[in-house]
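thread: overnight batch results

M.L. [08:02]
morning all. the overnight job finished for the chain we discussed friday. pasting input first so we're all looking at the same thing
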Amino acid sequence: MTTRAAAAGAALRTSMPGILLVAPLVVFLLAFYVIPFAGMLRESFGAWTGDPEAVQAADWTLYQYQKLFDSARTLRALWRTIEISLIAVALTFLLSYPVALLLLRLGPGLRSALLTITFISLAASLIVRNYGWLVVLADQGPVNNLMVWLGLFERPQRLVYNKWATIVGLVHYCMPFMILPIYGALSRIPRSQWESARILGAGDWTTLRTVVLPLSMPGIFGGTTLCFAICASAFVTPLMLGSPATSMISQVAAEQLLIQLNFPFGSAVIFTLTALMFTLVFAYALIVRKVLRINV
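M.L. [08:03]
and the structure it wrote out:
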């Protein structure tokens, strides 16, 4: 027993530096995510009487979730959120993967410059970005003027305050979060893998499809998962570039929490969105691991 206790003490002393490094992060997550989220989950089982102070833990009920699934407006917003998020993630991937490949092929100077631009874009205010898109996509904006000049349309088209304007804003915001993980995964692929495929007679497209793409799947999985979470929880971008007819589920939750002060229903909406996101990400990881046989 003494030997076991000594071994356990030695193991604890060995792992103590790692525990101390992780402890601030654990405390931060507990204080600002786990505890508030647990309180919101408890709130979602409350019965709303119009007075936020009247909700008691003893009043737990599934009424808010029944109300959510009986509300056609909420279900449409939930489905619209998933649809917009999936389209935005797919477009972000199609635009970001070539950029990551380009970063891999550039010289050190150009690569550093492009990476610096990518990092700087993360510091730009989201509101400023969206106002920029409002100007670019306006009825008399440069995009409309170019299309009229090219003869694609006889008169300017309404390009803002719709679903596709929201998607454009989300893609613009998410691209750095997609480029960096994919570039990290590509940079870890040994050059011998590329050269072996070429020696065996594979062309550029075959090498990319059969060698590079599967080996970069961990970066793709990380980038697409992160971008999906960002898009599904987006609030400012759909508020500024969309319209009430294209509102996403975060706007429904904000309306219930901030305007209607219906905290139980707003909490139920947020928890449903979170649970749905975790379910989709879990299914995505399962497909990648079991069907594609790729470890992520």
